[in-house]
């Protein structure tokens, strides 16, 4: 048997609560994107060829759990550690293929736990399954007591609180030739700056509930853009941006009239607009180049349906 899996990517807009006073940690909002993608074909195999990183480590986890192997062909991928969630999408592509090939009755949460994803943010796992604009509920302090990124957390995946189809706005994605925080560097970022002030957590929650979410339902880009702009200067998102000195601030300030932010710990910058997407993209690229930073770029849309699958042989 052989199956093809194609995933979305995702923007992680912000974590919500890195204070924990109310008894929960994390939580977040984010958006699934049509491009870039992880796309693989997988087949059941007793003697698979060598699988490239990072896909091999997920196949090994599944082999350890179930005693079965798969062969993989990687059709498309994108860079790690740039803020677009390639790790989670790669992991879940492998896990979903494995599940289908061997007829396993496993939930999204079980799959994510098997491949070690969702320990802090649930945006990537819910983007994979459902697409759209996502709000996840974070973790009870009964299951997660420390401030840690997903890569270092063994907590179970967080619940999906809300999911909305996103309007047909253009999403400009600019990926500079820099590497975001990961591994020990990302852990240190959490340890150094958490807990975040409870006042900032409350302010951020207010903006999400009464500005960002209503603007999506009402398809009000101006209000959405105002909310996204305010989020960049609050709590842990501000910390993530300030890792890069003034670079990301200056780049984001080079465009107006759209929702501009940095995804996850960066360095990817996004701009969401209903007009002039190519002009916005040029301005962002020029702003990076003025700082002697080259970049990749694309214009895409939200993915409102999650991953695709196609049986090639049964």
UniProtKB/TrEMBL annotation:
Residues 57-132 form the GHMP kinase N-terminal domain. Keywords: Glycosyltransferase, Transferase. It is an enzyme of class 2 (transferase). Coiled coil: none annotated. It catalyses: 5-phospho-alpha-D-ribose 1-diphosphate + 4-hydroxybenzoate + H(+) = 4-(beta-D-ribofuranosyl)phenol 5'-phosphate + CO2 + diphosphate. Its EC number is 2.4.2.54. Pathway: Cofactor biosynthesis; 5,6,7,8-tetrahydromethanopterin biosynthesis. InterPro entries: Beta-RFA-P_synthase, GHMP_kinase_N_dom, RFAP_synthase, Ribosomal_Su5_D2-typ_SF, Ribsml_uS5_D2-typ_fold_subgr. The keyword Glycosyltransferase applies. One of its GO terms (molecular function) is beta-ribofuranosylaminobenzene 5'-phosphate synthase activity. Transmembrane segments: none annotated. Homodimer. Catalyzes the condensation of 4-aminobenzoate (pABA) with 5-phospho-alpha-D-ribose 1-diphosphate (PRPP) to produce beta-ribofuranosylaminobenzene 5'-phosphate (beta-RFA-P). Belongs to the beta-RFA-P synthase family. PANTHER family: BETA-RIBOFURANOSYLPHENOL 5'-PHOSPHATE SYNTHASE, HOMOSERINE/4-DIPHOSPHOCYTIDYL-2-C-METHYL-D-ERYTHRITOL KINASE. NCBIfam families: beta_RFAP_syn, BetaRFA-P_synth. This is Beta-ribofuranosylaminobenzene 5'-phosphate synthase. It comes from Archaeoglobus sulfaticallidus PM70-1.
